[in-house]
Design brief:
Layout: H1 10-17, H2 30-48, H3 53-66, E1 70-71, E2 83-88, E3 92-97, E4 108-113, E5 118-129, E6 132-140, E7 153-160, E8 166-171, H4 191-194, H5 198-201, E9 208-212, E10 216-217, E11 223-224, H6 225-237, E12 247-253, E13 258-260, E14 266-269, H7 272-287, E15 295-300, H8 317-328, H9 333-338, E16 341-344, E17 348-349, E18 371-374, E19 378-379, H10 390-402, E20 407-409, E21 419-420, H11 424-428, E22 433-438, E23 440-441, E24 449-452, H12 453-468
Parallel strand pairs: 1-2, 4-15, 4-16, 16-22, 17-23, 18-20
Antiparallel strand pairs: 2-3, 3-15, 5-6, 5-12, 6-9, 7-8, 7-12, 10-11, 13-14, 14-24, 18-22, 19-21
Helix pairs in contact: 2-12, 3-7, 7-12
């Protein structure tokens, strides 16, 4: 018979049996915090140079090539340790590090997206009204429209002229560049506007970007504001108004990535959903040498509007890339996919103490508590989601714990508050085990989002140990 004093006390039982919800920051060494801070200097540079998906691909290709990656050739057989990339229309990117066992036991996939909410130009955007020249926009992705007025905007994208030549624009990011903005009503005259709900206060058709206010005068003395804008654009870029028809031009916030807080523990920037995860998995791919299973990194487009189109993951380009790898090894792609695993690297909502009613505190993720895992996303009754199987979640939590990766798990918010999806459901549709893993974000989809440097670094660590896992 056991003696009474041999029984564990409540503290011992709690440590053994209960989830420890204290701030995980306290379990991280000072050396790791310093590594996180240093890692995020490169992260801020990536954000600065990647305001659109085109720019993100260009930046990622440069980083990959510097690390030894070369363009993928489907007719070539690769050996363990080879590094290749596939650039899909300059809007999405796949990188692969060939494993010692190739695809035989499946591949390890990390998939993030590099498109972000923004304001795209309409095909015929330029107009003048009441002595001002403006450009009409069509917002892309889920935004709060009122957040996009009265902030500095920069102009990014590509104009494809009728003669087949291309003009790449990046205006408003360098010292001395002009900036742009969208006007809003002064509070003295906005009594009617203030009565509207937040989603109606600013209408989509009023997200017009102010681009000029000086006219060209004709012989009759008439002032032509629109013409003056086109005159300046033609002189600098050689374009005409019709060239807007074949252009991918976006306006993004002109904010530069910066440290937030007296302790500089946070990063403030536009586009951290989901370029925070994109950078983490890109750097994990760069640092991966010769894995056992081929490690595949995906930087996808179009996630913010449902992953549609030939650069989104609801298309075949990832499947086809893996099929090319499988064919080169004499394998059937369906057998490779059935054995494959994926971390859908997308951000999650960090608990915001200013709006606690939108969250369920016990099932939320928190800044500075590590990479956030979501067993499922979706909306309300788990619509439009992939619900990871318990076996795969167990495998990933064990992998993280064994490699000292600080992690947490939670949901996007309260069940009936709304919801959102990721690319997980499209990869799961290829018969791949997948779970969402990413950086918690404050003010998600706002023109200026906030993340934790520690969480960004832990997401990188999560991707790296996943690529190296057997």
């Amino acid at each position: 018979m056991a003696k009474k004093n041999d029984k564990p006390d409540a503290k011992e039982l709690a440590e053994k049996l209960l989830v420890n919800r204290k701030n995980g920051f306290f379990s991280v060494s000072d050396s790791k915090i310093k590594k996180a801070d240093a890692f995020c200097e490169g992260y801020k540079d990536f954000l600065e140079n990647s305001k659109t998906e085109r720019e993100a691909v260009t930046t990622a290709v440069k980083i990959a090539e510097d690390a030894g990656f070369v363009p993928f050739d489907a007719d070539k057989k690769y050996k363990a340790g080879d590094k290749v990339y596939y650039n899909n229309r300059s809007k999405s990117l796949i990188l692969a590090v060939i494993g010692t066992e190739g695809c035989k036991e499946g591949v390890h996939i990390a998939a993030a997206h590099i498109d972000c909410p923004r304001l795209d130009l309409k095909p015929h955007p330029l107009f003048e009204q009441n002595d001002l020249a403006q450009l009409k926009t069509h917002y892309y992705g889920g935004i709060k429209k009122y957040q996009w007025t009265t902030i500095p905007l920069s102009m990014h994208g590509r104009i494809c002229r009728k003669d087949g030549t291309n003009i790449d624009l990046r205006l408003g990011e360098e010292p001395g560049d002009p900036l742009f903005t969208i006007s809003d009503l002064l509070p003295h005259l906005s009594s009617e506007q203030s009565k509207k709900t937040a989603d109606k206060a600013i209408e989509g058709e009023k997200l017009n970007v102010l681009v000029g206010s000086r006219p060209v005068r004709d012989e009759d003395g008439e002032r032509l504001f629109k013409l003056n804008v086109m005159k300046l654009l033609n002189e600098q870029y050689g374009i005409t108004e019709e060239d807007f028809v074949s252009a991918d031009i976006a306006f993004t916030p002109a904010f530069h990535p910066c440290d937030i807080g007296f302790d500089r523990a946070l990063v403030g920037a536009y586009g951290q959903d989901d370029r925070s995860c994109a950078y983490a998995e890109l750097m994990a791919a760069v640092k991966t040498k010769t894995p056992k299973r081929t490690a595949i990194t995906v930087l996808a487009d179009r996630e913010e509007i449902g992953s549609v189109g030939n650069t989104g993951l609801d298309s075949n380009y990832l499947h086809d890339f893996i099929e090319d790898l499988a064919d080169a090894e004499g394998l059937k792609v369906r057998h490779v996919l059935a054995k494959s695993r994926c971390l859908s690297a997308d951000v999650t909502a960090a608990f915001d103490p200013n709006y606690p009613d939108a969250y369920e505190a016990n099932n939320s993720t928190y800044l500075n508590n590590g990479v956030g895992m979501s067993k499922y996303t979706g909306a309300r009754g788990k619509y439009d989601t992939s619900d990871a199987c318990a076996e795969f979640v167990s495998e990933i939590r064990r992998l993280f714990d064994e490699n000292e990766v600080l992690w947490q798990i939670g949901e996007l918010g309260k069940i009936d508050a709304g919801g959102g999806g990721t690319v997980a459901m499209y990869i799961a549709g290829m018969n791949v085990d997948v779970v969402d893993v990413g950086v918690p974000v404050l003010s998600m989809h706002a023109p200026f989002e906030v993340t934790s440097k520690l969480d960004e670094y832990m997401t990188y660590q999560a991707m790296k140990v996943f690529f190296e896992a057997e």
